[in-house]
């Protein structure tokens, strides 16, 4: 199948650099709403048959214009939410942000027993994302799009796709509404076809 993982539009927490991972999360900014609206034309050529989003409000706000344009219902999954920041939640200092990213990247490297400070392990976080992707694949659609979050998309793709590694993922953060396009399935594995569109292709 073809799977599009889309980072949400800009939020008020993004503007201040906060580790905002708890429900319901911040709303989109005006720019974030413009970014969400732009997905309609950006994805015009993609034969998306199903739309999914996380339980955080920003992903649902981001997918709404696309859902209206395609006439599709959006399925909400808690497993698509952002990596839990634990005791780092809503911190804005560089040390906290660096620790959050370093922990996530250790999971990409296979150190999934490592725990986010005051939060879950990599095995727990990757596992709940796996379960949602398995449900999407099992639905039988040929092309699905899921609006999710930057850190969890990078971490899951880095851990599960066969053609990107931790170094690539660490060097290529996702900007708001950038898309990672994968082909494959949970049984045979996943291949990244495109990373971010306006970033270097893999």
Automatic annotation (TrEMBL):
Signal peptide: none
Coiled coil stretches, renumbered: none
InterPro entries reported in the protein's UniProt record: His_Pase_superF_clade-1 (IPR013078), His_PPase_superfam (IPR029033), PG/BPGM_mutase_AS (IPR001345), PGM_Phosphatase (IPR050275)
Source taxon at top rank: Bacteria
Protein name: Histidine phosphatase family protein
